[in-house]
Design brief:
Blueprint lengths: L19 E3 L19 H8 L1 H16 L1 H15 L3 E4 L8 H13 L4 E6 L2 H8 L8 E7 L13 E5 L11 E2 L4 H4 L5 H4 L3 E4 L2
Parallel strand pairs: 1-2, 2-3, 3-4, 4-5, 5-7, 6-7
């Protein structure tokens, strides 16, 4: 397969540690009007600073939108070959459509020993999907909420709160992120724990 058609899957990064992940272009591949696009998207900073990262995410976005069958097939094959304990969707970017979420669910169902995680602001896409289908138990979908952002959450997903000093909706038992995904891994278990997580904005 030509390099231009190959999905770039990261083995990890400084924050995640050795957690395999895949990303697409931030903002362009996110729900329209998300506040983080104007107020400090972390992934945009990486996109601007690192040209290789920017190109890899743009390539993934192109494959995901023009050839989703190949996109999910490639990701599924890598996960089946490596059998990671954890896999993170979208360090940058987000769930693009109901069909895209279905592809994520199919990969989770085919790899029951891997725990999958996705933070999302694509609330409507997830809600529409869950109105007719269940999300696999090994795929944690966490709703990501910035301050003052309206959250439509009829299926009661755990929420990742961004605390900038003004957010007053964080439950008292929310878990504060320690900043080391590989050693913690708690977000993968949030739905089973029935807890939320809070990130301090910096």
């Amino acid at each position: 397969m030509q390099q231009s058609q190959r999905v770039s899957i990261s083995p990890g990064n400084r924050k995640l540690g050795a957690i395999m992940n895949v990303s697409t272009t931030p903002v362009l591949c996110c729900a329209e009007g998300v506040p983080c696009a104007r107020e400090g998207c972390y992934a945009l900073k990486a996109c601007r600073l690192y040209s290789a990262t920017r190109k890899a995410w743009a390539k993934n976005a192109r494959i995901a939108t023009t050839n989703p069958k190949s996109y999910f097939s490639q990701i599924g094959e890598v996960i089946a070959d490596h059998r990671p304990r954890h896999f993170r969707w979208h360090v940058a970017g987000d769930i693009l459509s109901v069909g895209y979420l279905h592809g994520m669910c199919e990969i989770a169902e085919s790899n029951p020993r891997t725990q999958f995680l996705a933070f999302t602001k694509a609330f409507n896409i997830v809600n529409v999907y869950e109105n007719s289908r269940a999300i696999p138990g090994n795929l944690a979908i966490i709703f990501s909420a910035w301050p003052r952002m309206r959250i439509i959450n009829p299926h009661r997903h755990s929420i990742a709160w961004v605390q900038d000093g003004t957010e007053n909706r964080v439950p008292k038992d929310a878990i504060e992120c320690p900043g080391d995904c590989e050693s913690c891994g708690m977000c993968f278990e949030l739905p089973n724990l029935g807890r939320d997580v809070v990130f301090c904005k910096h």
